[in-house]
């Protein structure tokens, strides 16, 4: 199966997380070791999920506290079709520079998350080989993707055959710089939102996740769609603005990227950066649950009011 080699050791699709949750939304799945409580094992070299702590991330519109034992990092659609020079976007003449700029900050975030046993979940936009999940002939989803050549056979950089936005090909592999690690989770999606007809919600619930740190592309389409659906399901989302990119409106006086950031920080979640996330996670200070570094109790929805921002990052 072309393109599956690098990711064959990752948890793909709905690999069993709890009894009764089986593998689907992927053409293959690998078994994963489990602890006695039914949660996926993270391996002997990693601390357990229960060893989490409360960290405070400087963000807009307020600093936000996250419980690392109830947190996961989402990587949305950072795949070759969107972020590589031989991918679908670049072939269509679409500027991908802002997506490529998001790669290195995202790489640092993922390294930090893995060091602290925070689950990393990849979402990949991809269709079955017969495009049966792209929608009926009148579907806007199918029509829009046909304009970009969905299903078209194209050469991969190594000369092998690939197909635009089709599962298990080079086109839908994660870009090499962000290659998944063995304990990461990969899920396919066939619409803009990572929650639509996928197992993402089940996976998050099985891991006990309440807080999502979001990265990926593109900001105003798949990233914002996923954040909206996450918010509707009561997940608290923090988007790292330097770990996302959007070609639509790029270079205009007000871009789609900026509009999405504003919508997210005003109504849908919080906006921060890779630097702020890493600083908060790497901070060795232990914050008592439900309290900020000064000892003040945090409000139930886990954000730090503006009047208390002076306590964040040594202010």
Question: How would you describe the overall organization of this protein?
Answer:
With 315 residues, the protein is an alpha/beta fold. The chain has one domain (11-216, 223-314): Rossmann fold, CATH 3.40.50. It is built from nine helices and twelve strands. It has helices spanning 80-83, 88-91, 97-101, 103-115, 140-146, 200-207, 219-232, 256-268, 274-282; strands at residues 11-12, 54-57, 63-67, 71-76, 120-125, 153-155, 161-163, 185-189, 211-217, 236-245, 270-272, 303-304. Strands 1-8-5-4-9-10-11 form a seven-stranded parallel β-sheet, sandwiched between helices. It has a three-stranded antiparallel β-sheet with strand order 2-3-12. Strands 6-7 form a two-stranded antiparallel sheet. α7 (219-232) links the parallel β9 and β10 (236-245). α7 packs parallel to α8 (256-268). The protein is globular. The termini are far apart. Mean pLDDT is 81; it is low at 1-9, 12-50, 296-301 and 306-315.
Whole-angstrom Rg? 19 Å
- Please work out how many helical segments DSSP would assign: 9
- The CATH topology corresponds to Rossmann fold
Strand content: 15-25%
Estimated structural class: alpha/beta
Total domain units:
1
How far do the termini sit from each other?
53 Å
Q: What top-tier CATH class fits best?
A: Alpha Beta
Helix content: 10-25%
Largest beta sheet, briefly?
A: 7 strands, parallel
Mean pLDDT: 81
Could you give the count of β-strands?
12
Give the uncertain stretches in residue-range form: 1-9, 12-50, 296-301, 306-315
Shape annotation: globular
Strand order of the largest sheet: 1-8-5-4-9-10-11
Q: Find the CATH superfamily.
A: Isochorismatase-like
CATH architecture call:
3-Layer(aba) Sandwich
Summarize the helix and strand pattern as letters: EEEEHHHHEHEEEHEHEHEHE
